[in-house]
Amino acid sequence: MTHNKTYKILLISNPEEEPFCIKAYLDDSIIITRVTNIHSTSEAINELKEHTYHIIFLDLGKPGKAGLTKLDHILAFTTAIPVVILSNQLNMAFSIRCLERGASDYLIKDSLDTFTVYKAIRHNIDRRSYIHALEESRLRYSRLFHLSPQPMWVYDIETLQFIDVNEAAQTKYGHTLEEFLSMKITDIRSTAEIPKMLKTVYETRKNLNRSYKGIFKHRTKDKQNIDVEIHSNLIKFNNKPARLILANDITEQLKHIKAMEAQNKKLREIAWTQSHVVRAPLVRMMALVNMLNDNFEDKSEFYLEQINKSAQEFDQIIREISEKTARIEFDD
Description:
InterPro entries: CheY-like_superfamily, PAS, PAS-like_dom_sf, Sig_transdc_resp-reg_receiver
Mean pLDDT: 82
Helix content: 40-55%
CATH class of the largest domain: Alpha Beta
Domain Response regulatory: 8-124
Strand order of the largest sheet: 2-1-3-4-5
Shape: rod-shaped
Largest sheet: 5 strands, parallel
Low-confidence stretches: none
Pfam families: PAS_9 (PF13426), Response_reg (PF00072)
CATH architecture of the largest domain: 3-Layer(aba) Sandwich
Organism: Zunongwangia mangrovi
Number of strands: 10
Radius of gyration: 40 Å
Protein name: PAS domain S-box-containing protein
């Protein structure tokens, strides 16, 4: 809080008693306030529709059912503004019921002083702001989680039970939310993958690794096996340790890599065949041409020259093919 800010207080008085003068407990040197006094909850709701307030003080007088009805009436209209109950007497059961219904605080009028009122204003406004920030954070998380196009889920690290699953995961795996919440993370693994998964879970739990990344095989509802890259982070979910999982289906990506590896293997085989199998008879042909050049008469030189020229062209073609094959493999 800052001293130059004016805090607007709505005081709902008890019509059965003299209006409570809360302004008498407020010191402008500590906090600047503007108090509006209303005599009924219906008037208060009309006032709240037209103006903004930082805090509401609800004077209930004596504890009783009528007071709870007034509180319910206010909270049914707004829960964004802290409501502090003012009462004539301490009644533990009644005060607990007020707090359970949504009241922010419960004060006894006879025990009030300037410090108590100031502390109540500051504490309840700040706490409500903090709660509002937490709610906004939770809402942002919920939106990011449930609207993410990537499959995501949260599981209990002790029981391995799914405790939240987004729509993308439901679509990818074919299970409804109700089905997921009755399952464990082992239920979407292939049988062969479960020991690997349990080992990973044990190691991350033992070492309290906040994040983890790995590739696993998962199984959809229709028994299809998919390759999934998992990104795992340790979080708190409903005050319990849990893991947030983001799953990326890389099945097609791995198939493409395997296809490229198979292609490279074939290209290597082609290159070896070109450089060894095909060239071998060519080398022999070229050797025979050389022998013919050494032993035949001049009239054969033209034919030998043509044979040699063809052999040289054949050799050059094989070399170019081999070089191109090598470049293709390197680029991939």
